[in-house]
């Protein structure tokens, strides 16, 4: 059936797409802030929450946060020496990787680093996050939940029932285990229980100042180089021991294989000789039986021919008498 021309879909939303104009506006704002502020910090975000970032912007009104696409922000700063807005600013764009943003401020570096090092906000974990501890619900009533939510709890996998209008656990239930990724159902249960496992944290990666200085901040993971080296040495020693044991095993195995082959070779030769003798005897027996059967067949064929000749002669005599 053809589509009706009158059947048209009208969009009632008033929001507009963020096209090229929005990106150009972001680039212009970044270049303007490069001129207005003394320092630029590149920060990474753990467990991003829009509400937390909004509160952070309100608290740091004297500064400016940019949290857009990395390529657009890099275009505003300048990716190369020829296109950079200020001296050595292209080095900042190399650190715009992953979920990160820009902080333009006039505060001193020590003050900024100390403030963000102590800043963290707890929040509910989402699906895919790693559980920080094990949560177990014992059997019994759950008075914190209303009776209307009991079917939803059963859909999430909890063994619950309504007993006298109170949500009750029928048996002990483990919501999550430590150091394991959370599933969507587990994250919803933890949110209903009010158990927060995620932490909104901002970590500074590098800093650029107007005097042309660029400084990269070391992460906590790089402090454990000695332990990683010692682990590599242990792995090398273990691999050497494994190689030695494998070589010895191969040598011993080769000796066993040679011995087995020799023994099996002798037994195979004996078996071949026995098979040859039995085959020869069988052929001789078959030849004798074939000759005997041929002689018997010849005798029977000769007797049959003689009988047929006599019958034919008798028939000829009878026919001649009748005539």
From TrEMBL:
It is found in: Cytoplasm; Nucleus, Nucleolus. GO terms for cellular component: cytoplasm; nucleolus; preribosome, large subunit precursor. InterPro entries: Mrt4, Ribosomal_uL10, Ribosomal_uL10-like_insert, Ribosomal_uL10-like_insert_sf, Ribosomal_uL10-like_sf, Ribosome_Assembly_uL10. Residues 125-194 form the Large ribosomal subunit protein uL10-like insertion domain. This is Ribosome assembly factor mrt4. One of its GO terms (biological process) is nuclear-transcribed mRNA catabolic process. The keyword Phosphoprotein applies. One of its GO terms (molecular function) is RNA binding. Component of the ribosome assembly machinery. Nuclear paralog of the ribosomal protein P0, it binds pre-60S subunits at an early stage of assembly in the nucleolus, and is replaced by P0 in cytoplasmic pre-60S subunits and mature 80S ribosomes. PANTHER family: MRNA TURNOVER PROTEIN 4 HOMOLOG, MRNA TURNOVER PROTEIN 4 MRTO4. It comes from the Eukaryota. Its main location: cytoplasm. Belongs to the universal ribosomal protein uL10 family. Associates with the pre-60S ribosomal particle. Interacts with MINAS-60 (product of an alternative open reading frame of RBM10). Keywords: Cytoplasm, Nucleus, Phosphoprotein, Ribosome biogenesis. It comes from Zootermopsis nevadensis. Pfam families: Ribosomal_L10 (PF00466), RL10P_insert (PF17777).
């Amino acid at each position: 059936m053809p589509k009706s021309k009158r059947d048209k879909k009208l969009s009632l939303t008033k929001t507009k797409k963020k096209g090229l104009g929005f990106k150009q506006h972001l680039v212009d704002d970044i270049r303007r802030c490069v001129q207005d502020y003394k320092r630029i910090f590149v920060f990474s975000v753990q467990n991003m929450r829009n509400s937390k970032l909004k509160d952070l912007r309100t608290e740091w009104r004297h500064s400016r946060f940019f949290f857009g696409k990395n390529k657009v922000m890099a275009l505003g700063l300048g990716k190369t020496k020829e296109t950079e807005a200020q001296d050595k600013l292209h080095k900042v764009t190399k650190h715009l990787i992953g979920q990160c943003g820009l902080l333009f401020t006039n505060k001193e570096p020590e003050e900024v680093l100390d403030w963000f090092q102590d800043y963290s906000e707890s929040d509910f974990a989402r699906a895919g996050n790693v559980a920080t501890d094990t949560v177990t619900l014992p059997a019994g009533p759950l008075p914190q939940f209303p009776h209307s939510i009991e079917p939803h709890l059963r859909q999430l996998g909890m063994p619950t029932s309504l007993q006298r209008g109170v949500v009750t656990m029928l048996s002990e239930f483990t919501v999550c285990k430590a150091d394991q990724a959370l599933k969507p159902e587990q994250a919803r249960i933890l949110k209903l229980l009010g158990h927060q496992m995620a932490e909104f944290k901002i970590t500074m990666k590098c800093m650029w100042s107007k005097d042309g200085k660029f400084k990269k901040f070391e992460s906590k993971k790089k402090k454990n180089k000695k332990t990683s080296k010692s682990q590599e040495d242990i792995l090398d020693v273990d691999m050497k021991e494994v190689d030695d044991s494998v070589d010895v095993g191969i040598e011993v195995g080769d000796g066993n294989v040679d011995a087995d082959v020799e023994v099996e070779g002798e037994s195979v030769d004996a078996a071949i000789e026995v098979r040859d003798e039995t085959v020869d005897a069988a052929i001789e027996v078959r030849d004798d039986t074939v000759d005997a059967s041929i002689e018997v067949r010849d005798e029977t064929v000769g007797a049959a021919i003689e009988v047929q000749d006599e019958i034919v002669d008798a028939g000829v005599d009878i026919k001649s008498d009748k005539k």
